[in-house]
Write a structure and sequence with these properties.
Strand content: under 5%
Shape: rod-shaped
Structural class: mainly alpha
Largest sheet: none
Distance between the termini: 75 Å
C-alpha cells in the first residue's frame, strides 16, 4: 500500500469511530431526556 492509501485508511477508521462515538453520546442524552420519572414510593396522604 502506498502512503496515500494508508493515510486514507486511517482517516476512514478514525471518521467511522468518531461517528459511532457521536451517535453513542447522542443516544445517552436522549435516554436521559426521555427517562420516566416515576417513583415506587407512594405519597403521604
Amino acid at each position: 500500500m502506498t502512503s496515500i492509501q494508508i493515510s486514507a485508511l486511517i482517516f476512514l477508521i478514525c471518521s467511522a469511530a468518531l461517528l459511532y462515538w457521536i451517535g453513542y453520546r447522542h443516544g445517552l442524552t436522549d435516554g436521559q431526556k426521555y427517562q420516566p420519572t416515576t417513583t415506587t414510593r407512594r405519597k403521604a396522604a
